[in-house]
Amino acid sequence: MSIDTDTAARVAKLARIRVEDDQLPALAQEFSNILEFIEQLNEVDVDGVEPMVSVTPMRLKRRQDGVTDGNQQDKVLSNAPDAREGFFAVPKVVE
């Protein structure tokens, strides 16, 4: 599939990317190269191939999902530059 400069300009406009007119042919060629590569990938037979999350098979560590209050308010507020009444104090920005 080949992309012309008009299509490249339209894609750039939709992506809100300013592209100078003299750069459009190069951008169109780059889009065409990307689409050619995708077409090559579509030719690969992947039937029976399991999807991968990682190159090494591993299971994620899991823990019991339990609701707690955290009970760490003092620890969380210990580094706050200004904390009042158990909350972060920030300057007023809206009148």
TrEMBL record:
Keywords: ATP-binding, Ligase, Nucleotide-binding, Protein biosynthesis, Transferase. It comes from the Bacteria. The keyword Protein biosynthesis applies. InterPro entries: Asp/Glu-ADT_sf_sub_c (IPR036113), GatC (IPR003837). The keyword Transferase applies. It catalyses: L-glutamyl-tRNA(Gln) + L-glutamine + ATP + H2O = L-glutaminyl-tRNA(Gln) + L-glutamate + ADP + phosphate + H(+); L-aspartyl-tRNA(Asn) + L-glutamine + ATP + H2O = L-asparaginyl-tRNA(Asn) + L-glutamate + ADP + phosphate + 2 H(+). Its EC number is 6.3.5.-. One of its GO terms (molecular function) is transferase activity. GO terms for biological process: glutaminyl-tRNAGln biosynthesis via transamidation; regulation of translational fidelity; translation. It is an enzyme of class 6 (ligase). Heterotrimer of A, B and C subunits. NCBIfam families: gatC. PANTHER family: GLUTAMYL-TRNA(GLN) AMIDOTRANSFERASE SUBUNIT C, MITOCHONDRIAL (PTHR15004:SF0). Belongs to the GatC family. Allows the formation of correctly charged Asn-tRNA(Asn) or Gln-tRNA(Gln) through the transamidation of misacylated Asp-tRNA(Asn) or Glu-tRNA(Gln) in organisms which lack either or both of asparaginyl-tRNA or glutaminyl-tRNA synthetases. The reaction takes place in the presence of glutamine and ATP through an activated phospho-Asp-tRNA(Asn) or phospho-Glu-tRNA(Gln). This is Aspartyl/glutamyl-tRNA(Asn/Gln) amidotransferase subunit C. It comes from Salipiger bermudensis (strain DSM 26914 / JCM 13377 / KCTC 12554 / HTCC2601).
